[in-house]
Amino acid sequence: MTVGQRIAQKRKELGLSQEALGERLGVSRQAIYKWESDAALPEIEKLVNLSREFSVSIDWLLGQEDETRESRDLTPEQLRMVEEIVERYLAAQPKPAPTLPGPEADSETGAQGVRWLKRWGLSWAGLAALVVIVMVIFNLFGRLDQMKQDYYNLQTSIQQVNQSVNSQINSITSQVENILESQNRLTAEQSAEAASFDYPANTVTISVRAVPRTYVEGMTAEFVLASGGETVTVPAREEENQAFTAEITGPLTDDITVSVVFLTGDQRETQVVERFDWLYSSSVPAVSISSGETLRHGRDGWTVEQDVDVLAYNSGDGNPMELDIRLGLFRERELVAWYDPVKRPNMTGELYEFTLKEEVRLEPGVRYCLAALVEDEYGRTWMFPDRAWVIQEGDNTSAWSVDSFDWSRDPADWDY
């Protein structure tokens, strides 16, 4: 059991809730939850208090003592080692005399014992020595098992301590970063949001607002948008409560940064207001390809599935789009064959159905994939590839594998 499992077990045996145990220890219910889920390790002081509440040792809480000992039966491997030692001992013993010594051999029990000793070539002293050897070995294996368990428990405790320390360090680092950022921030308030999109022009307009932390009479401001290697700067309007606002338009990409620049005389101070990720991608419809088993194996080799469905979802802004979708089979991003459309809806959110009229046999050792070339009503195009496969050499009907190659979504990287 882990440390957390042991704490939970004893708490439940005492009929305590996490909140009640927390009150006894002077910690929150969340702290008890973290201990029991092994997300954090109790501090030394809390371990001592836990051991008192549960009437157990700290070693038990840390897994250094077992409530129940494992069975001490020898494993088959250990038995083989004992048998080998016994065989070596017997081989080293001198053969006994042909006659049986002593009157004790007259009794039936004594005779049986002597016959047993004779059969194995053992004297009573040898038998005693053998018993001692076996007991020593048995005890040695027991000690080794316990040492292994102790080592495992120690490793587990060290890992839990490391996790707890790393978690605390990350939390402290984050707090320090937030404090430093707050102390160095130029604004008392700031905000930015995407207000509108112009898809034919592939631009976005962002509404931005910033209130300086220290306002100086005569201060002005401007906003800067950086996107797609371009920079756009617009002057800000000064509103009530010393707030500066503006609408700024720039290229629609997945990496947009909007900053404010406060101008006081010849002094310029700049601060990032907002970073926008995936604005462009969120305007793209989501397309998925459903091709069943994808590949088929026949008498003449591997062929690709001939009936394929493509499902297109609305773009991230929720506006339905008219899409033109073409489905192709590609070999190393080079077109092998286009599929023929069977059903082509006008809007996203419906199935596009395709079929391949002729079978295409696949060559081993190269990458293939199905990919949908999508064009929206604004003329923007994307490539949506499905997973890739590589046919393995040989005649095994299951000899194909999925390749995790990261296919590009830029149509310029494809040959069609």
Topology:
Blueprint: H1 3-13, H2 18-25, H3 29-36, H4 44-54, H5 58-61, H6 76-92, H7 108-120, H8 124-184, E1 187-198, E2 203-212, E3 220-227, E4 230-235, E5 237-238, E6 244-251, E7 255-264, E8 267-277, H9 279-282, E9 287-290, E10 295-298, E11 301-304, E12 307-312, E13 323-331, E14 334-338, E15 340-343, E16 351-355, E17 367-376, E18 381-391, E19 400-403
Antiparallel strand pairs: 1-2, 2-6, 3-4, 3-7, 5-6, 7-8, 9-12, 10-11, 12-16, 13-14, 13-17, 15-16, 17-18, 18-19
Helix pairs in contact: 2-3, 6-8
Shape: flat
Low-confidence spans: 67-73, 102-107
Per CATH, which architecture of the domain at 285-413?
Sandwich
Give the N-terminus to C-terminus distance in angstroms.
59 Å
Residues in helices, as a percent range: 25-40%
Number of helices, where a helix is a run of at least 4 consecutive DSSP H or I residues: 9
Biggest pleated sheet:
5 strands, antiparallel
Q: Main sheet: which strands, in order across?
A: 14-13-17-18-19
Category from helices, strands and their pairing: alpha+beta
Order of helices and strands: HHHHHHHHEEEEEEEEHEEEEEEEEEEE
What gyration radius follows from the Cα positions, in whole Å? 39 Å
Q: For the residues shown, what is the average pLDDT? A: 80
Question: What this model shows, in words?
Answer:
The structure is a single chain. This protein has nine helices and 19 strands. The protein has 416 residues and is α+β, with helices and mostly antiparallel strands. Strand 3 and strand 4 form a beta hairpin. Helix 2 crosses helix 3 and helix 6 packs antiparallel against helix 8. The strands form five sheets. A five-stranded antiparallel beta sheet has the order 14-13-17-18-19, with no helix packed on it. A four-stranded antiparallel beta sheet has the order 1-2-6-5, with no helix packed on it. The two termini are 59 Å apart. The radius of gyration is 39 Å and the shape is flat. Among the domains are: 59 residues, Orthogonal Bundle (434 Repressor (Amino-terminal Domain)), CATH 1.10.260.40; 95 residues, Sandwich (Immunoglobulin-like), CATH 2.60.40; 129 residues, Immunoglobulin-like. The protein is 33% helix and 32% strand.
